[in-house]
Write a structure and sequence with these properties.
Helices cover about 40% and strands about 20% of the residues. It is α/β, with parallel strands linked by helices. Helix 1 packs across helix 4, helix 2 runs antiparallel to helix 4 and helix 9 runs antiparallel to helix 11. Strands 1-2-6-3-7-19 form a six-stranded mixed β-sheet, with helices on both faces. Strands 11, 12, 13, 14, 15 and 23 form a six-stranded antiparallel β-sheet that branches. Strands 8-20-9-17 form a four-stranded mixed β-sheet. Bound molecules: zinc ion (ZN) (2 copies). The site of one zinc ion has 4 residues, from loops.
Length: about 450
């Protein structure tokens, strides 16, 4: 059977399950859960994979679920299909969980529907009889940031080292046997067309800064206080003044928020807290901008004679999409959505932990449409269910057939030219080297 015939057979099997696949996407949309806490969603994935006759392993890095299926045409590379489980807190989202604030405003519910739909199609159609190597169906936790206090507490308790699901899964060895991987992310942006592949994405580090001053009566004796809020404010102004030093091609993004600015109005604030990401196109650009941000934070403390504690947290590495995989995806996407709806995108300034995987193996992170509104915003919604939920299932399954069909010729083609920058051990050492804590006493300076 040719690959084209097998793809058609698998697509027909997916069509027969389309109501069920849409049902999965809608059910997850209605039960949004935050990263590392996607218990119900992971349970749904585990049950679905088990019903397909697979033997999933669950509770990997808290909530990850992984099952593999071997092709019967002999040994070959292992290709992982990935779906992200988590939602994120978006205030004002009409479907936000009232208890946690979580909402599926990034469309990860569609990723899981696509992942399970691909598994259904491949297994229903008996595709494994025509494939070599192995396919892994991997639902992964916690791509979105946030929920930092809880994650910090888990880290102190030794339950977590990194704050992203994929870095944690790499650390725990659950990607050790995977040679190449892909996922499909939903996009609400009309300019992305119905299917698109970006060239690359920014990487980032996370930062927490805690300014400590001295409380005093704000009316009666302000001269006895050290105003931590003003120290933080000066740091923010200094960060903004640095923006002209960043080169356009480095696509630096720094977007601090003030998370605490005082306890009550008649007390000089003794504590103020900032949180920010520092993003950039290359790791060197992130490291350079990060050093400037540290300077700005110290400057705030120095001006007021306050102290600042700066925690730099390992974030996500820049994403590079594999060009060979992108070529295969293009052909499949054009078959599904038509040439005029396919786009090739340039660099994007957001970040994802698929970037981390891209530094250690060839990966692809395309987008497909079906959503409307703004990502991470209250107006985000899935409006075209077949495009958002069912088409990605077909695209993922077609990629499995391309990578693992014909003796896994596609995967061998990818692996022959891909040159991942880091080994897994080098990756972990690099991420660990990014973690840093500095205490700067501006009063002693
Ligand atoms: Zn997101
Ligand atoms: Zn996302």
């Amino acid at each position: 059977m040719t690959r084209a015939e097998l793809k058609r057979r698998v697509a027909e099997a997916i069509d027969r399950r389309s109501d069920e696949i849409i049902g999965v996407g809608e059910q997850i949309r209605r039960q949004p859960e935050l990263g590392f806490k996607e218990v119900k969603t992971a349970g749904l994935v585990e049950d679905s994979l088990r019903r397909l006759g697979l033997s999933p392993r669950a509770r990997l890095a808290f909530t990850g679920v992984r099952a593999e299926a071997a092709g019967t045409r002999g040994a070959g590379p292992t290709f992982a299909l990935i779906g992200e489980l988590d939602a994120l807190v978006v205030s004002g989202h009409p479907e936000a969980d009232p208890a946690t604030g979580a909402a599926h405003a990034c469309g990860h519910n569609a990723q899981v529907a696509g992942l399970l739909g691909a598994a259904m199609g491949l297994l229903d159609a008996g595709a494994l009889e025509h494939l070599s190597g192995r396919v892994v169906f991997f639902a992964v936790p916690a791509e979105e940031g946030g929920d930092l206090e809880w994650r910090m507490a888990q880290r102190r308790a030794g339950a977590l080292e990194f704050f992203g699901g994929k870095p944690e899964l790499v650390r725990l060895g659950h990607f050790d046997d995977v040679d190449l991987a892909m996922m499909i992310h939903t996009t609400p942006r009309p300019e992305d067309g119905r299917a698109s592949v970006p060239l690359s994405n920014n990487g980032r580090v996370g930062k927490l800064a805690r300014f400590a001053g001295r409380a005093a009566h704000a009316g009666g004796a302000p001269h006895l206080g050290v105003n931590a809020l003003y120290a933080a404010q000066i740091a923010l102004a200094a960060i903004n003044a640095l923006r002209e030093t960043f080169r356009d091609e480095d696509t630096i993004r720094i977007h601090p928020i003030l998370t605490h600015g005082g306890s009550q109005v008649n007390v000089i604030p003794a504590e103020a807290r900032l949180e920010t990401y520092v993003r950039g196109r290359t790791l060197d650009a992130v490291i350079d901008a990060n050093a400037k941000v540290d300077r700005a934070l110290r400057a705030g403390a120095l001006a007021l004679g306050a102290t600042v504690e700066i925690d730099t947290l390992p974030g996500y590495l820049p994403l590079d999409c594999d060009a060979t995989m992108a070529r295969y995806f293009r052909d499949n996407a054009v078959d599904l959505v038509g040439e005029s709806h396919y786009r090739e995108l340039g660099h994007r300034a957001g970040s994802t932990d698929m970037g981390d995987l891209s530094q250690i193996m060839p990966v692809l992170h395309p987008y497909m449409g079906g959503a409307r509104g703004t990502g991470h915003a209250a107006d985000y919604e899935i409006v075209d269910k077949p495009l958002a939920y069912v088409a990605p299932a077909k695209a993922l399954a077609a990629m499995v057939i391309d990578m693992l069909g014909d003796g896994a010729a596609g995967a061998r083609d990818v692996l022959a030219t891909a040159r991942p920058r880091l080994s897994r051990a080098e990756y972990l050492a690099l991420q660990r080297s990014m973690a840093r804590r500095e205490v700067y006493d501006g009063g002693a300076a």
